[in-house]
Amino acid sequence: MDHTRFPTRILWIAVFLGVAGGLLWLSGEIAERNAIARLGAETRGAAILRQAYFKSEIERFRLLPVALSDDSDLVAGLTGSQTALRALDRKLEALARTTGAAQIYVLDASGRTVASSNARSERSFVGQDYSFRNYFKLAAAHGSGAQFALGTISERPGMYLSRRSRGGGYVVVKLEFDRIEQQWARLGEITFITSREGIILITSRPDWRFTTIHPISGEAKQRFRAELQSGRGSLLPVPLKGMGDADGRQIVSPADEPRRRLLWQSVSTGEPGWQLNMLTPLHGVESFVRTVRLATLLFLMLLAGGIWISRERAHRRTERAAMAAARTTELESMVTARTQELRREMDERAASETRADTLREGLRQANRLASLGQITAGIAHETAQPVAAIRSYAANGRLLIERGDTSAAAENMVAIERLTDRIGKVTAELRGFSRKATGAIDAIPLAGPVEGSLLILKSRLARVALQLPDLPDGLRVMADTIRLEQVLVNLMQNALEALEDVAAPAIRLSVALDTDTVLLSVIDNGPGIDPSVRDQLFTPFVTSRPSGLGLGLVIASDIMADMGGTLRLLPSDAGAHFQLRLKRA
Q1: How far apart are CA 370 and CA 374, in angstroms?
Q2: Beta strands 506-513 and 465-467, pairing class
Q3: pTM of the predicted model as reported, rounded to 2 decimal places
Q4: Count of domains in the chain?
Q5: Is residue 366 domain-shared with residue 464, that is, in the same domain?
Q6: Residue 6: is its pLDDT beyond 70?
Q7: Which residues, 6 or more positions from 393, have their beta carbon under 8 angstroms from its beta carbon?
Q8: How far apart are CA 184 and CA 40, in angstroms?
């Protein structure tokens, strides 16, 4: 064992562990942030739907006092007609049963109940004085009013809607939200509505009713308890930890489950000062973060193994070279000891052979590098997009399997099979290109290569405005599907890279038809082609991009020539305009 290498290995291991730890933390943070953002958008959408349903329920019942305010039995009853009042009792009872209202009742000018939907029950409101209620005071002052409180007789929470009627009376409708609360509870998230002061009024967690999400002074508590009729034990802080303003995206935990994290989202209900709040568990986010960190760890382990194997192989090659040099020196010493003459002759011959070997090896190396550079660079250039697409489909497939959506995952696997077939065909075509061989040309539907290129670049094209032509049914051209697809992928990939800094990126594909020709154009609204390389655009290794190889357009032009067509750069006022000329089948 080489002890001189031991400290160096320890240092490299320490550096790797430090970098790996940092990457694991960073990947988890980024994954959590993105997952919470997506969950926040989904939660907000769900909250808006619940808000709309809640608002529609209130608006439906808000019309009842308006409809009853001009009722003839109500007006007659307010003048003292007992016959009219009894008829009104029956009418209110039928109306409450039909609409689902908890109670409907009529107050005279002093706030005393003269008719009620529960007049025939043991807990009838008739004769009760409700002049102390806020909804009566608001209706008396402004013509209508609303108040959320516990019923003095029923002791059930609800919302009271009041309106002044003809004849000097007041119609009151009470809404109870038991059904809505039960629906919310079945959906899984914690949902509740708060007043302007932060008091929880309607909730899927009944034990949270009349708790507060903000501190309230003692004087305010006494006033609200009197208005709500909520009792002395009410208006305590809601049992949540970690509350705070975070632009509508705060994370909280129940006091009895501190490890359970919930995402808090709020939307307005339409009632003055009222907010609908949703607390969504972060179980899915935490699972996603663990998956991302595990994938990062596996990648780092593979990377470390690859680096270690590479270094060990290099070390063994160095040792073998040193041993070979030592054996050569020993043989040379033995030959020198035998005969000086033979040594001169062998030295001269060895020198001649060495020079010849050097020249031959230099020629072979130059030839290998020329071929290898062209083919390797072409393969790297032409397979980068399918490999990126395979990675995206594989990641989505894993998530779909975790969700149990095996059908959608199977579709991803089919797409991956197609892309791997494409990589094999691309490399075969590139080998053929290096030998200047021409593949089979046949009449093919033009839609095939167009759709194939769009599939490969699907994820990257999502950020641009893509305009596609309406291809006539049965339009066929003389070409090879895979190689024509290569050309389109090259052109659209170049367009996407040119559009990276454009505010409103757009790519347009257009088709013009002639009797014997199909002209297919790829047009973008980017900065266009650099004038310094325009005249040499189809020359190998000429490119204006720092990371470009300068082979894409060369290969595309040669492919078009092999298929009996052309690839040209046309003048354009904005962006780049490439035109493919194909023979019509």
Answers
A1: 6
A2: parallel
A3: 0.47
A4: 3
A5: no
A6: no
A7: 412, 413, 415, 416, 419
A8: 18
